[in-house]
Every structure is written in structure tokens, then in C-alpha cells.
Amino acid sequence: MKNLNIDEIRDAITDMTSSNKEKSLSMLNDIINQLPPEFSDIINQTFIQKRVPKEYLLSSIFFAVSTSIGLTFYIKAIGYKNYANLYFTIIGSRGDAKSEAMKIAIEPIKDLDDVDYDEYVFDLKNCNLEIEDEPERKQILIQNATIEAVHKIHSENPNSVGIYYDEIYSLIEKMGSSSSRDGVAWRTFFLEGYTNGHVDISRKTTKSFRLKETYPTLLGGLQHQFVPKLFANGNLESGFIDRLLFTPKLTKNNELSRGQISANVLNDYNSSVLNIIAYKRQSEDIDETIKQFEIKLSVESEDLLFNYIQELIKRQNSAETTFKEYMAKMQISIHKFCLLVHMMNNSSNSNFRSILNIETVELAIKLNEFYFSNFKIILEENLSNANKEPTLRDIVILAKKNGAIQKDVIAVTGLNKGTVSKCWNKDSSNLQPATLKLVQNAS
């Protein structure tokens, strides 16, 4: 048996006694502290000046960087080739600044899309469509598009597309409807796109095209009351849920500020993201012979990655059924996080083709575990809500709405007539909750 030092024993005890929210919050702070200042500074300043939860901006930044990398960079490790595309869902209530976090993170990409759109409009105005093909539009971010439009946009921008929704509920609702052809196609696109599968479109009414590899990313906000919809109608069984990286609300700032985010901080963040995109754009040039670059891992890095995945497999074998499939996807997402962190670490100087070091893998592991802890938080909250027993007040209100009488409530609950009658005769707005267990055989 391994001999543990004092720090390791203290960490083990803390891990056993902490809730998943406490664990996630602790990991969140460690992660932010280990990020390059181009990313950590904007997270910390936005939390102070705009009261945006740190975890919301963190996930939004990961989406922006993931989208910017595209198919240009990949890693090969343990027999697998992996890219950095990931799917993020931010969970919260109205007014929790989900949209603000996403807006700040994608700003440099949006600005680039704006410029590209203006160029497209200019080219279109000067194009003779009778003898020329319509010019293709450069585009990275996609909002409110049909799946057919997404396929077309991705065919014209094969390196990456970022699917971005302020509120992702409408997309989830489509994907959960068996009668929605679009919904089924969306789910298939995300399932296959996660591991960069091909897309081959052949229709009578549209131009045929084929993408040998796809690279979709996803960012969307979701109000917490709609989370159960995510787990319904085949999304869980299909494996879509296991590919999502959930971000529940962990931090809160109640102090209003008159200050602003530093212009230097914003500029450093924007420049870092644009440096990644610039490298990707260069690889897209027609005259560029090398379209993709493999990021090599050091021997120590690959050893650590191997040992971590082996440990994940052991944990998966003994895990509860609910977590087994998610932990299987963690064995893929760890590769993606390694590449993501490597690109962020080198974004200020564009030294992307450097060796991926062991510190990068260590932070990637922490990210993988952070999102697993978040997944457990989401499950706990929703399972507890699903299993919550109704109160007498709940049953009386429901009975009155459906025209039932007091005797029906007594039969269902097994409570005595006096208790039910007292609750029944109170005004509904003044009824106090009284938790009870339903009698299984009320007859």
C-alpha cells in the first residue's frame, strides 16, 4: 500500500467530506489560477466589474478557443487521433448573466465574422450570378439556423463551426421530438461530430457535398427548470448527454461596481483568441501545403495521460450505472482538453507547435474532473427534484383543481380526516407544507 504524506491525507479527507459543489468550486479556483493571465485576468475582472460568474465565463472561453482551433491542430496518443471540439451547456436562472458571459467570450470571433460578412456582401454585389457562382461566405459562429443550413455553412467553412445559442431549449426540444426530422438530424450531427465523423449530403434540391471530417462546437445557456428535458426523449440513451460539459452556477458576487474591465485585459484576451484563428486561417490558404499540424506529447505527458485513462477505466467498471457512459466519454474528452490547454498556454506568442508538456496534462485532468463533478451536481439536483415527495398542500391544491373531494385525499394519503379537513379549509395561499408519504395501497 502506498504511504501517504500529510498533504495527501488531508486532501483525501477533504474529498470524502466535501459536497460536489464544494469540490467543483475548489477545482474552479485552482483551474483559473493555472490559466495564462490572458484568460484568468478577464475571468476575475469580469466577476468583479460585471458580476458574471467565473465558471460561466470559463466555459464560454473554452468554447471560443475550441471553435478557434478547428481541424488545424490535433494530437495522437494511445492509438487515437483527437481534435479539441467540445460541447458546453451553462445552467442557471434568468438574470444569472449566462448571456453576458457568452457575449464577452465570443466577442473577438463575432467581430471577425462581422468583417467577413461585409466582405461577402461586397463580393455578392459585384458578382454576376448569371455567369459566376455565388461567393462563399466565411463564417465561424452559427445562430438560429436549420440543420440543412448548418451543413452548408460547414461545407463552406470545413475547419470548424461554432453552434451558439443564448437559450438552447428550443434545440433540445427539437432533438427530443421523434416527429421532428430536423431534431433527429441535429442529434446525429452532434453525436458524429464529437468524434469528427464525416458528413455526406446528397439531395435533389440542394448542392451535394461531402465533409471528410467535421468539427462542430456547441455553447448554449439553459434555465435550470428545463434541465430535465435534456435527459428525456432519447437524449440520455443516445449518448448526447454524455458529451455535454455542464456548468452550474458556483460563484456569486453581490457587490455592485462602478469600474470597467481593463482595456488591456480585453485586448490581451481578444489577441490570444485571434492568434489561434490566424494560424488556422493560414492553413486554410489554397497555396498552403500543410493543412494540419500534430502536436507532439513529451514522454512524461503521454505516460501521465495513459495512467489517467487507465484509472478512469477502473473507476468506470465500479461506477454506478448513471455514470458509466459519461466516464467512457471522459476517456475522449481528456485528449481534447490536453490540446485545448496547450493552445491556450501558447496563444500569446503563437508557439503552438511546441511540445505538449506534463503541466498541460495535469491541468487537463483537473478540467476533466471539474466537469465530471458538475455532471454529478446536475444529476443530484434533478434526481432530488424528481424524487421529492408531494406535500399535503400540493395534493389538496391538485385535488381541488381536478374536482376531487376530501375523502379522495384521505384515501390517497392515508392521513386522518381532521388533518386533511384542516388543510382543506385553509386558504390555498396560507397552506403550510407538511411532508408526507403516500400510502401505496389506498384502496
Walkthrough of the structure:
With 443 residues, the chain is α/β, with parallel strands linked by helices. It folds into two domains: 367 residues, Rossmann fold, CATH 3.40.50; 39 residues. 56% of the residues lie in helices and 9% in strands. The strands form three sheets. It has a five-stranded parallel β-sheet with strand order 4-5-8-3-9, with helices on both faces. Strands 2-1-10 form a three-stranded mixed β-sheet, covered by helices on one side. A two-stranded antiparallel sheet has the order 6-7.
Please sum up the structure shown.
This protein has 443 residues and is α/β, with parallel strands linked by helices. The chain has helices spanning 6-17, 20-34, 37-50, 54-69, 98-125, 147-156, 169-175, 181-194, 227-230, 235-238, 263-284, 299-318, 321-345, 358-386, 392-401, 406-413, 417-425, and strands at residues 73-77, 80-82, 87-92, 141-142, 161-165, 199-201, 209-211, 216-223, 244-247, 293-295. The chain has a 5-stranded parallel sheet, with helices on both faces. The chain has a 3-stranded mixed sheet with strand order 2-1-10, covered by helices on one side. Strands 6-7 form a two-stranded antiparallel sheet.
